[in-house]
Design goal:
The chain is an alpha/beta fold and 246 residues long. It has helices at residues 3-17, 19-28, 34-39, 47-63, 73-78, 99-102, 122-133, 149-156, 165-171, 179-188, 191-213, 217-224; strands at residues 87-91, 110-114, 139-145, 229-235, 242-244. It has a 5-stranded mixed β-sheet with strand order 2-1-3-4-5.
Length: 246
């Protein structure tokens, strides 16, 4: 059964069962308004609507007008056996970038893929393809952030222990266009130049990772059919704001 058919069935169920079902379900689930959980999110999001919804949640977070949606026991039960996230995020594993919080969302809203430096590895790409092709998620955002440690490591190019260097190497191609600035940094050792270079590299890395996603035939087919949108974003650690950079 398709997702849309499931939503049609929900409507028919509500017409037949009426308010009594809501009252009974509310009693079973701790007194929460079950009817609201059934009727919300009835129609799948379009790519543009999904992006608007994501950014609207970030604005609520920035303005501290939080709604904390989909964080109830009712929602927990609603998505226990199926998921239909409206957006997929490839974001950094940094503890200061928790997607559901900074977008004021809840359980089942986002398909999160988190890895240091928000890099596109084979496994990360497979996860994104799964969300888009199998779950029908209409939006992918590659989300970098201010003062990213992984990007900083790639810019400085210093030896790192263990496998920590792996994500720095994955970012290095993104900053090749900044090589002249890097040379100036090494010559002048200017802290402001270093800060500027790292911030430019954060955006360059987001753009590079988005380009890597465009190598996926599966994702590009969905984009061509108008079923998927891929964007890049930058999260500001100081203000909490997400800005689109593509």
């Amino acid at each position: 059964m398709s997702r849309q058919n499931q939503f049609i069935d929900r409507r028919q169920f509500l017409k037949i069962a009426g308010v009594g079902v809501s009252v009974a379900a509310s009693s079973l689930l701790g007194g929460e308004p079950a009817q609201a959980a059934v009727i919300e999110d009835i129609e799948p999001d379009s790519p543009n609507t999904a992006l608007q919804r994501l950014l609207a949640g970030n604005q609520r977070f920035v303005q501290q007008k939080l709604e904390h949606p989909h964080q109830s026991q009712t929602r927990l039960h609603e998505v226990a056996t199926a998921q239909h996230p409206f957006a997929t995020l490839l974001s950094c594993a940094d503890s200061r970038v928790p997607a559901e919080i900074l977008f004021d969302l809840g359980i089942g809203d986002l398909f999160d893929v988190r890895i240091a430096g928000n890099i596109v590895t084979t496994e990360a790409l497979g996860s994104l393809e799964y969300a888009a092709a199998m779950l029908g998620t209409p939006l992918i955002m590659v989300l970098g952030h201010e003062r990213c440690g992984a990007v900083t490591a790639a810019v400085k190019g210093k030896p790192l222990p263990g496998q920590i260097s792996s994500f720095a190497k994955a970012i290095e191609p993104a900053i090749t266009t900044l090589s002249s600035a890097n040379a100036q940094l090494n010559n002048k050792s200017n802290s402001k130049s270093e800060s500027d270079l790292i911030e430019n590299a954060v955006v360059a890395n987001v753009l590079y990772q988005v380009k890597k996603l465009e190598r996926s035939d599966l994702l590009m087919q969905l984009v061509g059919e108008g079923k998927l949108k891929i964007v890049g974003g930058r999260y500001d650690l100081d203000t909490g704001t997400v800005a689109i950079v593509t």
